[in-house]
Structure formats: structure tokens, C-alpha cells
Amino acid sequence: MLRLIFTTTTIITTSTAIYLYTFHARLSKRITHISHHGPLTKAPVKPSIQSLPPQLSNNDSNDFITLYDRASKCIPLSTLPSPDIPHLFTNLVRRNMTAFSRFPQALLLAMASKTSEQKRSFKKEYLATSDFEVGDLVCGVYRVVSRSADRVEFEMAMEKMEFVQGRLGISYREEGGNVVFCSETVMWKRADEGRKMPLERGVVRWLHEIASWWLIDSGVRYLVDLEG
């Protein structure tokens, strides 16, 4: 019996790993991806997140170590069901944060929620109607710090990891006859901090890529499939 349990567990674990590896590879071909680890001033592309502290990009003294991850998807404007892109964009953020609220990492955050505000921030009815105004809390740890028609920026409030700071930015921009939807994550710590940020751990970073890439890819497909 123990041998059967061990064999079954091994098969399930291996199958899951193979599936996720294949899924990761397929997603990488459907989106544009950029990743950087080190001083933000040396990133191949400057983040579009506007709420980052100036010291991250205004000095080249290597005082901070950053992790920058960017996933974007470009589609023709003509494929969208409405010319009101700001409204569609809000629907995209609502849909993506609702989808994220069902991810394993979000479920863990929900179980650790203590305040009524934190618990409400995972509710489907709350996320499905939110306009993501400055100060709003989403999925327990994402606090809106900047909002405009073409972007939402969240500060990551990670308890028990005060040495890490972060931003999540979701935005769009028009390029000729196309629109580019983008999701960006930036985490940083002081260069003399020995502890690792979550995304400095290989498995965590790999799982983050799967989540981030899938959300932007499926979110854009969600918009295209909406009725006008």
C-alpha cells in the first residue's frame, strides 16, 4: 500500500511539473516578456510604473537591488468590442484581480487575513465592481497608490517582509492602430540586505511568471471576446 501511494504521488507530481513546464513555454510565445535582476538603472527597459521611489532610478550607486518583471500583449484596436478603452481597461483589471483571488497564493493570503477590509478585498462582488481608486485594498496585500485612465498601480504590503518593497502596475498604451496591455512587477531591497526577496527564489519566480503571463494573455482574450 505504501509503495502504491508513493508511486501514485510521484506520478502526479511529475505530471504536474511537466504540464506547468509546457504551459510556461507556451505562454512565453504568446506574450512579450522582459526580466531584470540588479540595479533598476541597468534594466533593458525603463519601467512605466510612475509611483516608484525616485532613488531607484535617479542614482546609479547600486544602493538597491531590484527585480523587474514585465509581460505585455499587443493587439489591433479593431479587435476590441468598444472604442472606450479606459472602460475596457477597468474591466480587464477587475477580471484579472478576480481571477488572481482564486490562485493558491491568494487563497493563502485570504486565510491569513485578519481585518474586515482584508477579508472583503478577496470577495468576487467587491472586485467585480471596484474602480480601483487610490487607497483601495485588493486581495489583501495590494493597495492602490496611483490611478489614471490608462493605469492602476498597487503598493505591495507584505507583512513579515518589511525589508522588501514592491509595486504592481497594470496599464495600456495605444501605438498607431494597436493597443498594448502591460503588467509590471518591481520588488526591491537595500543592496546590503542578505535576505532574499520572494522573486529571488527560482521556483517562486517561475510560478510568478506563469501567473503574470497567463493573466495578461487570458485577460486580453477576455476583452476581445466581450460583446460590444
TrEMBL record:
Domain of life: Eukaryota
Name of the protein in question: Uncharacterized protein
Organism expressing this protein natively: Penicillium bovifimosum
